[in-house]
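> example.struct
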């Protein structure tokens, strides 16, 4: 992100805040999650679901909520961030994550809460809403990803590569030509069937391809993702995409969204989102009566895009003000 964009985003968000609670929570199957709480201990509860899968939460994610109103709960999903074991995919599926969210809700004694998530975080929020609609009060979604075959084909089958041919060539040419008809499968064999030091090389290529397209201001530059971060990010993302999100069939979210259609929601979508194009946000909103779809006209995919950040903060402020008198949903 360029310096102007960084300053604009920083001025949009609430001031940095430290957690009032940090803990490691055992969730079974050998997994322990990093969990933190920020803001007002008796405030409106919201769970923040990071992207990836495998991205982990960051301090910036705390700053989309007024700390005088919201009780913000963040956690690193299985296998990534500060959760352990690192980069592990055993007992790590969408349905394990849904169970983890419910475990945290019950542990904190919360009856209903809001969910805030972008990209894969939006996917997980939608699946949780379909599975537990009575436990949600509002959804804040960004960069909608519906875990559908057409979306994977767009990003890993060459569709978006037509816009970024140099970056696509770098991503694809890491794989022998004979295997390029299925890059998710080809990378899977290298992220899981090779020694860790070789996994890191392919993990960096996987992460760099996504990072290069995250922001309109990046202009295809990806930087150099750290080895351990990239390994967890790439292994988890590839694991989930190989198994198509562990959903029963393609189009599962849209086929089941009627179960959560009564819930209110906000969708913030970048017009030039190359990773999760606006078509998915429009398709979701078309059958969701109580949703606001807000298109940021000159934004891409990243949470830190100025147009994205401004609209998300406005949404959490509006919903917070409505419910702030009673401090409950």
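> example.seq
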């Amino acid at each position: 992100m360029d310096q102007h964009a960084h300053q604009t985003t920083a001025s949009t968000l609430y001031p940095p805040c430290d957690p009032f609670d940090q803990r490691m929570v055992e969730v079974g199957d050998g997994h322990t999650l990093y969990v933190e709480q920020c803001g007002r201990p008796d405030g409106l509860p919201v769970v923040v679901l990071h992207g990836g899968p495998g991205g982990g939460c960051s301090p910036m994610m705390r700053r989309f909520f007024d700390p005088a109103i919201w009780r913000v709960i963040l956690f690193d999903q299985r296998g990534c961030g500060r959760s352990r074991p690192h980069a592990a995919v055993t007992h790590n599926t969408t349905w394990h994550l849904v169970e983890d969210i419910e475990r945290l809700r019950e542990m904190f004694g919360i009856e209903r809460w809001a969910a805030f998530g972008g990209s894969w975080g939006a996917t997980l929020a939608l699946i949780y809403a379909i599975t537990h609609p009575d436990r949600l009060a509002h959804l804040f979604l960004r960069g909608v990803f519906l875990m559908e075959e057409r979306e994977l084909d767009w990003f890993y089958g060459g569709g978006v590569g037509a816009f970024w041919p140099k970056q696509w060539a770098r991503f694809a040419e890491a794989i022998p030509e004979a295997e390029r008809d299925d890059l998710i499968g080809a990378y899977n064999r290298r992220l899981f069937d090779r020694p860790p030091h070789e996994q890191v090389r392919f993990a960096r290529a996987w992460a760099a391809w996504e990072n290069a397209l995250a922001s309109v201001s990046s202009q295809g530059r990806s930087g150099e993702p750290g080895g351990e971060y990239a390994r967890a990010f790439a292994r988890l993302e590839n694991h989930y995409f190989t198994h198509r999100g562990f959903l029963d069939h393609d189009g599962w979210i849209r086929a089941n969204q009627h179960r959560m259609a009564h819930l209110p929601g906000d969708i913030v979508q970048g017009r030039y989102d190359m990773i999760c194009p606006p078509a998915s946000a429009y398709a979701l909103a078309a059958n969701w009566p109580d949703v606001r779809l807000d298109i940021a006209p000159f934004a891409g995919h990243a949470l830190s895009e100025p147009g994205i950040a401004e609209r998300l903060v406005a949404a959490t402020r509006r919903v917070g003000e409505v419910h702030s008198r009673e401090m409950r949903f």
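> remarks
The chain has two domains: 3-149+246-323, 152-243.
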